[in-house]
Amino acid sequence: MWIAACILAFASIAVGIRGDGTPPPTAPKISAPDVDPLSGTFTESVHVVMVQNAQQAQIYYSLDPSAPLNANSTRYTRPFYIYSVGVVYLRAVAISDVPGRPDSEVTMRRYEIKQGQRRLPVVSPAASTFRGSVNVSIASEDPVEYRTDMEDHFTRYTKPFVLDTPGHHTVFARRVAAEGKDPASEVTVTTVYTITPPLRFDVSSNCDDCNHLPTRCVPFTVWIQGLQGPARMFLTTGQLGCERRTHLLVDTATIDVDPSRAGYKFATADDPADVHVCIAEDDYGSFARVPRRNGATTFRLGEAPSSRACSTLPPTTPAPRVTLPPEDAAAYSNGGSEENNFMSVGNVFFWTLVIAVAFLVMRAHRQRMANSQDWQRPNAQRRTES
Predict the structure, then answer these.
(1) Separation CA 58–CA 134 (nearest Å)
(2) CA angle (240 as vertex; 235, 246 as ends), nearest 5
(3) What is the pLDDT of residues 262-289, one digit of tens each?
(4) Which 3 state secondary structure label does DSSP give 320?
(5) How far apart are CA 57 and CA 36, in angstroms?
(6) Which segments constitute the GH29D-like beta-sandwich domain (predicted)?
(7) Rounded distance between C-alpha atoms, residue 150 and residue 14, angstroms
(8) Interatomic CA distance for residues 86 and 110, integer angstroms
(9) Model confidence at 80, in pLDDT bands (50, 70, 90)?
(10) Spatial contact of 311 and 333, defined as CB atoms under 8 Å apart
(11) Are the CB atoms for 275 and 300 separated by under 8 Å?
């Protein structure tokens, strides 16, 4: 028993612990905590991380230089952000859980936070008007979230996106808010885009025995959608598309087109081939291929039915002002009749007759007025004139 007591006493002295479990007054201080980042100047909120280097101890910190730093200060439990603009002094200390053990040295940091020097997200392209669609990208040094005026919540930005609905659209972009920070406090960049309908074409035929498809020797209509002003158009079978005008569709020519009309009638005796629709806008600049509404780049000109002859072809003429038909060409070919899209001969005759009758009525009325004034003159005056 005496030997065991001696061994226990020797061990207690060796590790520096009193018999009551408390460290002796001369026990060394515990290690100070590490604080990241180091002191410096920042243009954004500072993300603070502390690391405990001593066992059986807790980290306490303060952002108030005048307040005492002890166990009544804020206990560190997880990383946090400092948002305050200006100079912030941070002090941190490790306090042992063992009573009587000295606290660590104080770790100090000085952070100067400046506002508005970190670049905001950049939305590209710049606000403007685009035909058909626009591909939007966002560049930023930080994680970014965005939304459009068609959405009610922000989405983390990961890759470019497309806006293709005609109209005005606003893109809102902002940096992802730090943990614990109100997202609405981040500066939001807004960019407004105007999307106009794309320039497209479609084609139809009023030929019953052609399955309403464009066919040689049979008139067909090319429909244009999305013109923004006067332009020029031609049809070509050349493999280079619109680069050259040496392969215009036989019996056709370059014609003027404008937004007030949608349909233009053509007829050709050319051989069956794939046909490009070429249009030049912007004061008749270079010609460019126009895509079809179904996404194709050409339409196929078919062979004429055996009952059709190419001896007499009508000239290329613009159709009266109409709206672009439905997507299905056969649905708007009217089964060989144009009475739904074009003014019939009967209508022309009717309005001509109405105008002629009105003219005759007005002429007869004026004659009656002249005769009435003549009979109202004195008889002697009429005899003298006679």
Answers:
(1) 55
(2) 55
(3) 899 998 888 899 999 999 987 767 898 9
(4) coil
(5) 19
(6) 37-98
(7) 73
(8) 10
(9) confident
(10) no
(11) yes
